[in-house]
Amino acid sequence: MTDTPKTRLATDLIHAGRIRSNLDENAEALFLTSGFAYENAEQAEAVFTNQVQHFQYSRFANPTVQMLEQRLAKIEGAEACRCTATGMAAVSSALLCGLKAGQRVVAARALFGSCHWIVSTLLPQYGIETVFVEGSSLDEWRAALSKPTALVLLETPSNPMLDIVDMREVAALTHKAGGIVVVDNVFATPLLQKPLEMGADVVVYSTTKHMDGQGRVLGGAVLGSKKWIEEVYQPFFRNTGPAMSPFNAWVTLKGLETLHLRLAAQGASAETIARYLEKAPGVKRALYPTLDSHPQKALAMSQMSGGGTMVTFELEGGKEAAFRFMNAMRIITISNNLGDTKSLATHPATTTHMRIGPEERARLGITDGVIRLSVGLEDTQDLIDDLARALSAAAANR
Ligand SMILES: *Cc1c(COP(=O)(O)O)cnc(C)c1O
Fold first, then answer.
1. What is the pLDDT of residue 397?
2. What's the angle, vertex CA 42, arms to CA 37 and CA 45, rounded to 5?
3. Residue 2, in any domain of the structure
4. Are 192 and 308 a contacting pair, CB within 8 Å?
5. Do residues 140 and 189 share a domain?
6. What is the pLDDT of residues 249-283, one digit of tens each?
7. What residues does ligand 1 touch, defined as CB less than 6 Å away?
8. Exposed, middle or buried by CB within 10 Å (0-12, 13-18, 19+), for 300?
9. Of 5, 53, 189, 218, which alpha carbon lies 20 to 30 A from 161's?
10. Percent of the chain beyond pLDDT 70?
11. Is residue 46 located within the same domain as residue 149?
């Protein structure tokens, strides 16, 4: 590697991290192998004592997975990356690897359902004190971070209400409190938002979402400094086993090749749809980070280079109207996944956010009329026609 040119995003999405075997294959090879062979006993010993670099076992590292890890690190601008079996494996391992009983964790209240469960239920079982704050309130962050804190977890924009957290301010407060900031960057993707540049220490992803982008395989990623990944994360990762399947890494590598094109098209479509919904009859409000009506538009635009692919809106008429709406859709699919080329709609109150209970939903603004839309790659006008059809069905019995 004497002459590596400086490259840009579209090139990195296709080439970064490529490992070519001695067979000179052009597409990334799928190394579907659990273990690796040693030439002799001496070599095995040298590998296990770290004198020789050699793949050992796919729970520790695998060439196909490593290509994805190095590609994601390049795109994120992170020193190191490890890929995991799911997004939740990424979140749970990134949290558990460094935390100890007696420490304190502060998290934004608006979190993906399973992330909320880890903070509210799992961590306290291990003697970790956890505190939730309203992510958009710097006063609440200041109060919560006035005590020593080991870790902060936040998601921005949040799921499903697209709340924005001021990452620069929260990172400064967290570092003063002695902790690290972990950002779940799924909704924005590394193309629209770079948390590490705004003071975050660790970024986590569900690669299941936009990175695969075609609804096929689960996966996750944890990115951070070389020191944190190697000294704090790797021992936990290697010994507890949340590793990503090489097959899933291979599919996700293919997904990344078109990520910038899909995001640009889906994001433009999402913005057009948000503007349509904002004015559509029967819609109380539409949420999208670049709309003038978004209460945190200025902050969103200081952190993100685009609004993303998710639109959330609230229908008049509560659950009955929401269900009539969803059942009348002919193109948009009812599904709790997101970031797919297929447009997907979900009713958070009865699915993804059912378990957090009515009180917490009310606090987050997730009413029974709220629908979360993941905008796909279909023709924008066809999607608007589908939404119009569903809106008339929602209004039918009122
Ligand atoms: C989907 C998602 C996760 C979990 O990812 P899985 O791949 O489903 O385990 C975590 N955080 C956010 C914001 C998500 O959207």
1. 64
2. 80
3. no
4. yes
5. yes
6. 999 999 999 999 999 999 999 999 999 999 999 99
7. 86-88, 91, 112, 115, 155, 159, 184, 186, 206, 208-209, 218, 220
8. buried
9. 218
10. 99
11. yes
For the stretch 346-374, pLDDT in tens is: 999 999 998 888 998 999 999 999 999 99
Beta carbons within 10 angstroms of residue 37's beta carbon: 9
Could you tell me if residue 213 is left (phi over 0), alpha (psi between -120 and 50 degrees) or otherwise beta? left
**Looking at this protein, which amino acid is placed at residue 346?**
T
Residue 219 alpha carbon, nearest atom of ligand 1: 7
What residue numbers bound the domain in which 315 lies?
259-395
pLDDT exceeds 60 at position 398: no
Task: Name residue 238's amino acid.
Answer: R
Token representation of residue 269: 């479509």
Average pLDDT (161-190) is 98
Query: At which residue do the structure tokens 């006035």 appear?
Result: 146
Kindly state whether residues 251 and 263 are assigned to the same domain: no
208, 210, 248, best to mutate for ligand 1 pocket (most atoms within 8 Å of CB): 208
- Which of 86, 111, 112, 205 gets mutated to test ligand 1 (max ligand atoms within 8 A of its CB)? 112
- Angle at alpha carbon of residue 84, lines to 82 and 88, rounded to 5°: 125
